[in-house]
Write a structure and sequence with these properties.
The chain is built from 10 helices and no strands. It has 215 residues and is mainly alpha-helical. Helix 1 packs across helix 2, helix 1 packs parallel to helix 10 and helix 3 packs antiparallel against helix 4. The N and C termini lie far apart (42 Å).
Length: 215
């Protein structure tokens, strides 16, 4: 089923690469601010997605394990840091969410078939926590003048992208084990997963082009 939209998959990788290259070109003007870590994040994520098959062969680790225990946790931990620690300046929430996310691995390891539920249980917990941060970020932008200058606000683009992809795909991963038994419904959600992922990387790219470092 994952090969249902080969052209969209290629487009997704292309847009991910575009965001990475844009980050590299913009790195110099971001140097010295916490935004340079966003560049590193996109570089690591892009290299991981492009070479995950090769990494799997060299390390003899299944691709599912690489995504479940490295790539996906990296995404959530980074965005918890970007939102809670940096943008919202709520360090306690950052550490609390990190703890909750790490604890979400325990039921998988102890009680469930690991890779069968890692995308439903663990991903759902991670996305739900991220959804809270998205709401807090929108609240922050609405309460001050930042919303009036959204075109220069890097977090505006990132927040929209995160909301569309991570929050929007919560039902897909949360109900994954049920949806996979209904191919037509699963296929619709998978199409949304690909399209929203593409849009997210376009918005990441836009954040580098139009967003200001101090916004």
């Amino acid at each position: 089923m994952y090969n249902s939209y080969p052209y969209l998959l290629k487009l997704l990788l292309g847009l991910e690469f575009l965001s990475c290259i844009t980050a590299v070109f913009c790195f110099k003007k971001l140097n010295g601010s916490f935004w340079m870590y966003f560049c590193f994040y996109l570089i690591v994520l892009t290299l991981s997605d492009f070479f995950v098959a090769d990494i799997s062969k060299v390390t003899d680790i299944k691709k599912q394990h690489i995504y479940a225990y490295f790539i996906i946790p990296l995404q959530f931990i980074f965005f918890y840091w970007l939102y809670a620690y940096q943008s919202l300046q709520k360090k306690r929430i950052f550490w609390f969410f990190i703890l909750l996310y790490i604890l979400s691995f325990i039921p998988i390891e102890l009680y469930f078939a690991r890779l069968k539920v890692v995308y439903s249980f663990n991903y759902t917990i991670g996305s739900f926590l991220l959804m809270i941060l998205v709401f807090l970020e929108f609240q922050k932008q609405i309460k001050n003048d930042a919303i009036l200058y959204f075109k220069q606000n890097k977090m505006f683009y990132i927040n929209i992208g995160i909301m569309v992809f991570y929050v929007g795909t919560l039902p897909f991963f949360g109900l994954y084990n049920l949806l996979v038994k209904e191919p037509e419904i699963w296929n619709m959600y998978y199409l949304y997963f690909l399209l929203s992922n593409c849009l997210m990387y376009l918005l990441f790219t836009a954040s580098f082009i139009w967003g200001k470092t101090k916004s």
